[in-house]
Design a protein that fits this description.
It contains 28 helices and 33 strands. By secondary structure, it is an alpha+beta fold. Strands 2-1-24-25 form a four-stranded parallel sheet, with helices on one face. 40% of the residues are buried. It binds ligand ANZ and zinc ion. Zinc ion binds next to loops.
């Protein structure tokens, strides 16, 4: 064997051998405990970046460890392959999206294989393949049958130049389309939705079951679902039969209502607007319709509104208050109307100041009213006056009700309940639970996605495509111009079909599904990825699921994970799955950051200067000569601070890249790419290489160690070995502390280098253990070294070592030293020391030397394992 560590000689060799041996194939279902290790599948952009490498390395170490610990492991990979970039590439380069995508997949698969990941490639899925999207469509129809898929008018971003719908992310902060630069309009179009709101409560409650998820992710999900408890209250319109229904979380402030506000889209605007106000109101509504939801609700933007001229009656006070229309009220939330309480809501306060609406305080801080006798009958004018003057901003805390009729004197908490009860008894309101979560808009007026499998028939309405006609294939040879919307709408031969139900000429749905749909169920397909008859065999999927460890980016903390949880629950309710939550444990890995330089005097993209262009000793802007700031930032093209995985691999090998990534930072933290540390790991692997090859050359000991008869150096080394086993195992057990696990390996390697018993079977145990524990981290070098030690079989099929607690015990006891029966000191001594040895340890101790100097030792009494007494005169 070569005496030098040369990764290029061994890495591809072993990758091939492992593939031939089928080492990464998933074992069949057996009684052996299972472990499902899953990385979030990538979008096939065509090239792998460091973020991918980190993500997949983490999952791979876990998968390899679990195999060695005796689990049967499922560790698959696939492609989230539908989506816009393929369409854009097609528009820019004239390559059909399918071709572009499959080319990228082939390229990235090669790159992934070069990482030596223990992936079962037989289970690869690509969401753009008809074998896969057939089942995406089938699942959509399951939702349809369950009454969970429906069509409704919804406001979308419409690019008037390109005549197409654009996603929110494609509209810039000034409301312009990224493609045409035209000001985007809001347009009402019929869209498809999934009723995720039906599952809001369960999606929220079941977060408690996810004990293996980061708290932060659960909190983000809970906030996204946004449960709030409040009241639905009706305010009758003066002179009409209609009522304005509002949703409020502060019914305790109802005596402070000075106006009600309708969303511009609210149908009642037509009813309540007076003829005088009509032209102004219509102009206002038209203007607001141009704005995105983000613009309308941005906190730093002044809220704008207009009075309708209409009035409502506050059912609690009998007073009339004006009806306004304002941009900040969203039609889709609550009832699309709110009661304005400027005294107790910051937004309403600002609004009232701008439009000169009355501000009346009805809640006071308990301290401020402590001296007042607040009963429903006591006059509160005095205190109202005082407080109205003193509070010159909204008082938003709960407190004590003032000027609130029979509720005066109650706490906000009690009053909320009492006011809702009263409204219920009088029939103008009730308790209402409201979620911020809205139904999921899944239709895209886009080509490169799974077609929604329905047919619109003039007689039957919406008719689902029969299961046997699935998949509804996406025609692959299309021309994409980027204008005029999806090319599907123009493919008459594809669009025109007979109705499956009555045979009348009908039209296919031309919308495709949001790509988040594709990724909401892929993890259910891996356990049975090649099934052509079923979406999956429930027995297989139920056996493997839930995913035991899911690893991916924090950017998916909300939508992808929420949608996957939703799909799981719906398919469970359809009888296909027997569990509630798809991902038992979640690890969100941090970003990979690269060194970059920033010119603080410039803005936007121009301020970044790639580290290739500056002198690190005196970093200056090459254009202006200004001094630059040095910092780490997430690797990106615009900052020019990316490090290409292939460069690192060709220089150091993939094992070093893996070791560096795992060692440099705990997995959930950001990681600063640092070449010096990469080299440090390369040197470590070189040391291990030398240590093992030196030993292998010197002759591997096959003797079994006599544990009862070890020398001191052997015991010490054995303790180091088992401390390392314990440390690495614990570091990998719960929190996946790869960085400290690697440190343990380094310590063990040092202990072996320093060991004084290189001929002992204990040393042999140490070398084998080091190599075995290195295997999940640096699989190629570990395999090569394993073979060099003369072992048979792959290292990756070995059993993970277990720690012998006996070896850890500090082999020492405390010996008491007495002089003439009086205790003078304690000293540590080896536990096994016999009488003579104990006496020798005692005599050599500093105390005894001191007390016996110039004196005669008459007698030495040794109590084994306890004490030594010197009788001196
Ligand atoms: C009166 C009030 C008084 C309110 C007060 C707050 C404080 P969450 O917790 O998010 O559910 N609201 C209701 N529907 C709205 C809509 N469609 N668009 C904009 N705002 C809306 O928020 C509920 C509160 O948000 C409601 O309680 C309502 O204002 C406002 F001192 O009602 B509140
Ligand atoms: Zn029909």
């Amino acid at each position: 064997m070569d005496s030098r560590y040369n990764p290029a000689d061994i890495e591809e060799k072993w990758q091939q051998t492992w593939a031939e041996l089928g080492l990464d194939q998933t074992p069949a279902n057996t009684k052996v405990p299972k472990f499902y290790a899953l990385s979030m599948f990538p979008y096939p952009s065509g090239s792998l970046h460091m973020g991918h490498v980190r993500n997949y390395t983490i999952t791979d170490v876990i998968a390899r460890l679990k195999r060695m610990q005796g689990y049967r492991v499922l560790h698959p990979m696939g492609w989230d392959a539908f989506g816009l970039p393929a369409e854009n590439a097609a528009i820019d380069r004239g390559v059909p999206p399918a071709k572009w995508t499959y080319q990228n997949i082939a390229q990235m698969r090669q790159q992934l294989k070069r990482l030596g990941l223990s992936i079962d490639w037989d289970r690869e899925v690509a969401t753009c393949s008809p074998d896969y999207y057939k089942w995406t469509q089938w699942i959509f129809l399951q939702f349809w049958q369950a009454g969970l898929a429906y069509q409704k008018e919804a406001a979308v971003n419409w690019d008037p130049v390109d005549q197409t719908v654009v996603a929110n992310e494609q509209v810039d902060s000034e409301g312009r389309s990224w493609r045409s630069g035209a000001k985007v309009e809001r347009k009402l179009l019929r869209q498809w939705f999934l009723k995720i709101t039906d599952y809001a409560e369960e999606l929220l409650n079941d977060l408690d079951k996810l004990t293996g998820w980061p708290e932060r992710v659960k909190l983000m999900q809970a906030n996204w679902i946004g449960k709030s408890t409040g009241a639905y209250l009706e305010f009758p319109v003066v002179g009409k039969d209609e009522k304005v229904a509002v949703y409020t979380t502060r019914p305790d402030t109802v005596y402070g209502v000075s106006y009600v506000v309708l969303a511009p889209e609210h149908p009642l605007t037509q009813v309540v607007t007076t003829p005088e106000q009509k032209p102004a109101v219509e102009a206002f509504i038209q203007e607001v319709s141009q704005q995105s939801e983000l613009e309308r609700t941005a906190e730093d933007k002044p809220k704008r509104g207009i009075p309708t001229g209409g009035q409502v009656i506050n059912p609690f006070t009998g007073e009339q208050v004006p009806i306004w229309i304002a941009d900040y009220v969203l039609y889709e939330y609550g009832t699309g109307a709110v009661m304005g309480v400027p005294a107790h809501d910051v937004r309403d306060f600002k609004f009232a100041r701008v439009y000169n609406l009355p501000i009346e305080f009805v809640i006071a801080s308990p301290d401020d009213v402590a001296d007042f006798d607040l009963t429903p009958t006591s006059p509160t004018d005095e205190i109202t006056k005082v407080i109205n003057i003193e509070y010159n901003q909204a008082y938003t805390e709960p407190g004590i009700l003032i000027n609130s009729g029979s509720f005066t004197g109650m706490s906000s908490t009690d009053a909320k309940e009492a006011i809702i009860k009263y409204a219920e008894s009088e029939n103008f309101g009730k308790l209402r639970i409201q979620y911020r979560l809205r139904d999921w808009l899944i239709s895209r007026q886009r080509y490169w996605g799974a077609p929604i499998p329905v047919i619109h028939c003039p007689n039957c309405g919406i008719v689902p495509v029969p299961d046997e006609d699935l998949p509804v294939r996406l025609p692959e040879e299309v021309e994409l111009t980027g204008r005029g919307g999806s090319p599907l709408t123009q493919l008459e031969s594809w669009v025109n079909v007979p109705c499956p139900s009555c045979g009348t000429p009908a039209r296919r749905e031309t919308d495709t599904m949001d790509t988040f749909i594709d990724s909401s169920w892929y993890f259910l397909r891996y356990p049975d990825a090649q099934n052509t008859e079923q979406v999956f065999d429930p027995a297989k999927t139920n056996d493997w699921m839930p995913v035991d460890q899911y690893v991916g980016g924090i950017e998916h903390a909300i939508l992808h994970l929420l949608y996957s949880r939703f799909f799981t629950k719906v398919l469970r309710d359809r009888g296909l799955l027997n569990f509630d939550e798809p991902f038992a444990r979640l690890l969100t890995q941090g970003m990979v950051q690269g060194l970059t330089y920033m010119n603080p005097n410039k803005s936007g993209k121009d301020k970044w200067v790639s580290s290739h262009l500056v002198n690190p000793a005196d970093p200056r802007d090459p254009q202006t000569g200004e001094p630059l700031q040095r910092l780490y930032a997430t690797m990106s093209k615009s900052k020019g601070n990316g490090v290409a995985p292939e460069d690192v691999i060709s220089k150091y090998g993939v094992d070093t890249a893996r070791m560096f990534i795992l060692f440099k930072a705990p997995p959930e933290k950001d990681l600063e790419w640092d070449e010096a540390d990469v080299e440090g790991q390369f040197r470590f692997l070189n040391r291990v290489w030398r240590l093992v090859t030196d030993y292998a050359t010197a002759g591997v000991s096959r003797k079994k160690a006599e544990l009862s008869n070890l020398t001191k150096p052997e015991k010490e080394l054995r303790r180091a070995i088992h401390t390392a086993i314990q440390g690495v195992t614990e570091d990998l057990e719960d929190e996946y502390q790869f960085n400290t696990a690697v440190s343990e390996l380094m310590k063990l390697s040092n202990a072996l280098t320093d060991a004084e018993c290189k001929n002992s079977p204990i040393y042999a145990e140490g070398v084998q253990t080091l190599v075995i524990m290195l295997a999940p981290f640096a699989p190629h070098i570990a395999e090569e070294l394993w073979q060099s030690l003369g072992n048979s079989g792959s290292i990756h099929t070995q059993t993970w070592p277990s720690c012998d607690p006996g070896a850890l015990v500090a082999e020492e006891i405390t010996l008491v030293i007495q002089i003439n029966g009086k205790k003078r000191a304690d000293i540590p001594v080896p536990a096994q020391a016999d009488k003579a040895e104990l006496e020798r340890y005692a005599r050599e101790s500093e105390v005894v030397q001191r007390y016996t100097e110039g004196k005669e030792i008459k007698k030495v009494i040794v109590v084994p394992g306890k004490l030594v007494n010197f009788v001196v005169v």
